[in-house]
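Fill in residues.
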């Protein structure tokens, strides 16, 4: 396989990887909430209702993520924290890709949410359309690191098992 073929192949999998990372984050928290509900013996009704609302409710991702953190740890996290902002940026990128409609988006004009997301990142973006810029393999690496960081932050704050550490009782994620 030539170097050009390898680069093309790497670019092909960036958007599916970003989609997968966001899905993995959502699944991690959904499983945690399902286990919490199943294992809760004397959970007060108001806490059980809050947990059910988080698990089943439809709310904006940024609000949902904050509420999940504060449910399990009263301090939550700062809304300006790097981990939180990067997780939101990856979700925005995922949404822009999943709901992409080239008839309504000029490929040279970046969606505003993506412009905001990238402005604070360390990604070096080429001067072209956003779909080309965000199909770089470095974007998939950034998405991976961002999702991993928010899960680790959650584990550190709550004492939950870190799925990225190898323990005899836990299957490591990567």
């Amino acid at each position: 396989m030539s170097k050009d073929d390898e680069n093309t192949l790497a670019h092909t999998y960036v958007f599916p990887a970003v989609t997968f990372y966001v899905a993995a984050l959502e699944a991690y928290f959904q499983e945690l909430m399902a286990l919490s509900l199943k294992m809760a013996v004397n959970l007060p009704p108001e806490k059980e209702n809050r947990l059910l609302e988080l698990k089943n409710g439809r709310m904006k991702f940024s609000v949902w993520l904050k509420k999940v953190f504060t449910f399990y740890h009263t301090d939550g996290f700062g809304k300006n924290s790097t981990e939180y902002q990067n997780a939101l940026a990856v979700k925005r990128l995922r949404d822009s890709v999943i709901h992409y409609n080239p008839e309504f988006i000029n490929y040279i004009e970046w969606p505003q949410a993506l412009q905001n997301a990238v402005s604070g990142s360390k990604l070096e973006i080429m001067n072209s359309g956003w779909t080309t810029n965000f199909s770089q393999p470095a974007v998939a690496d950034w998405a991976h690191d961002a999702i991993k960081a928010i899960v680790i932050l959650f584990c550190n704050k709550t004492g939950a098992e870190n799925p990225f550490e190898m323990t005899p009782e836990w299957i490591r994620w990567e």
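The CA atoms of residues 115 and 156 lie 30 Å apart.
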